[in-house]
Amino acid sequence: MCGIVGYAGPGTGRRTEQDVDLGPGPSQRPLEVVIEGLRRLEYRGYDSAGVALVGPDTEDVAFAKKAGKLVNLRTELADRSLPAATAAVGHTRWATHGGPTDGNAHPHLADAGRLAVIHNGIIENYSELRRTLAAEGATFRSETDTEVAAHLLAREYRAAGDLTAAMVATAGHLRGTFTLLAVHADAPDTVVGARHDSPLVVGLGEGENFLGSDVAAFVAQTKEAMELGQDQVVTITPTSVSVVDFEGRPAEGKRFTVDWDAAAAEKGGFESFMDKEIHDQPQAVADTLRGRTDADGRIVLDDLRIDEAVLRSVDKIIVIACGTAAYAGHVAKYAIEHWCRIPVEVELAHEFRYRDPIVDAQTLVVAISQSGETMDTLMAVRHAREQGAKVLAVVNTNGSTIPRESDAVLYTHAGPEIAVASTKAFLAQITAAYVLGLYLAQLRGNKFPDEIATTLDELRDMARKVQTVIERGEYVRATARSMKDADKVLFLGRHVGYPVAMEGALKLKELAYIHAEGFAAGELKHGPIALIDDGQPVFVVVPSPRGRDQLHSKVVSNIQEIRARGARTLVIAEDGDDDVRPYADEIFWIPKAPTLLQPLLAVVPLQIFAMALATAKGLDVDQPRNLAKSVTVE
Ligand code: M6R
């Protein structure tokens, strides 16, 4: 959702690596930094973009905003002569209140054009505020909720004469979720920000400072960063960063160093970020496993700040997450229950919070999130903690809100995931869940050390096997190209193959806009089999033939049942599984692996299939329509 960038620093100087042509005016480092930041935040999903600039010689805020992609804004800027600036803000908007038009794009101006505000979130009491402000004489030019924040800030600034104090007062009037950034022509080297239930991170430079929705906004400029707490106002100038809370009392941010390189968020020669991120997956699995054992081979989780005695006393685990992360949670359930004999529930975060769940001090809530900012998951985390549960976050993004508000964190080390469709984060989340399961088994004595060591070795070998599946991708791509006119695709799986089937369906829906459903294969005869008619494509995830409980033979029977009714069967099966050959129209072979670890392999052909089919349809696989990478509103 909305991307936010702020910059305070010298008006000229070092150019960014992009060396963008931003029009006929003087060299514009603030504008260049902000545009580059917006480019790096494009992945969040947006439908309009804008910038606002102030400098020592500006009477009013200079600004530009355009509906559509960033290129539209850049074209607009290229035709304009902008004044030299020393502070700037930039915004990509994902429309909520008011359509994606030039007028509704941010920034929104007030104080006779001398103040500009950008916003991420939803201001829930905007209607009443708008009526009050209009009665006081404010003129509204957009349909957005954001514009009330601009007029409020102008009113408070007139009263306080200080932008930081005005922001504190403004925050006190707003309900809902917000990150706000503001610049004022009176303070040409200053950007003020406020955050309430919406992300904002500070980038610390030399003689310049940055603000961003996440570190991607400024990682090309600096890796030194500062997390802000909830309900804080931050003021940056080129040489200072000061933080206060919503009462105006001084507060501290927490410094950290971004552990990935700006290059990690570039396509690196691939056609899309998604393609690159699929290829990053062996590394993501390996990195998520790295450093998790001590010299004796015992699992050590340094970031897990929950007392071991508490973890031993846990009698229930609830995994909360959304979308792909929730499917990773389903895999976690199978593994943790099998290894640790603790009941595990998996719940969509937005459902969990509103159904009065039974949670107490013996419950461990595991919140899985790539971004660490998903609002539904964050709200569920808060609810769980209010009920006395301990919350462990499995998160990919440093400096994000969910780990900050959780009792403990287990970071996945997938690196930045830019494509909206999650791929490498999914594999890293599953890997982290396996590590957590084995750790709990070790702690609670459910498994012997040599059993844990064997599983860890098998897990370490998975990165190589994922690489093998990726290398076999051309056959999957060719199949996808041949199916570009499909209008409905079904996915079946059992046991851990079931969440893989659901994830395969989600990938196809979000990338190729094809109706796709994932079913538990055992459920087939209870209804979904009625969907099968002549030529209906059905993917089937087949478990290892060496697995337990006749799982394999049951799924082979399911393939026969749907084929007998005309389905075109696309089977994901383990190397050498001759039982499936007679019933498969296409087979995507994956290396042999223990049943519980198979999702790391089985999902990869499904990711490649969705990407290739969407590409064949001429769709943008990195930024599918209507979607945002990070869903920061409920
Ligand atoms: O950042 P999160 O992992 O919390 O995001 C959760 C979902 O929004 C996310 O996985 C979404 O379903 C992806 N677009 C799936 O590809």
UniProtKB/TrEMBL annotation:
It is an enzyme of class 2 (transferase). The keyword ATP-binding does not apply. Its EC number is 2.6.1.16. Keywords: Aminotransferase, Cytoplasm, Glutamine amidotransferase, Repeat, Transferase. It catalyses: D-fructose 6-phosphate + L-glutamine = D-glucosamine 6-phosphate + L-glutamate. It is found in: Cytoplasm. Residues 306-446, 479-624 form the SIS domain. Residues 7-28 are annotated as: Disordered. NCBIfam families: glmS, PRK00331.1. Catalyzes the first step in hexosamine metabolism, converting fructose-6P into glucosamine-6P using glutamine as a nitrogen source. Homodimer. This is Glutamine--fructose-6-phosphate aminotransferase [isomerizing]. The lineage of its organism: Bacteria, Bacillati, Actinomycetota, Actinomycetes, Micrococcales. The gene is glmS.
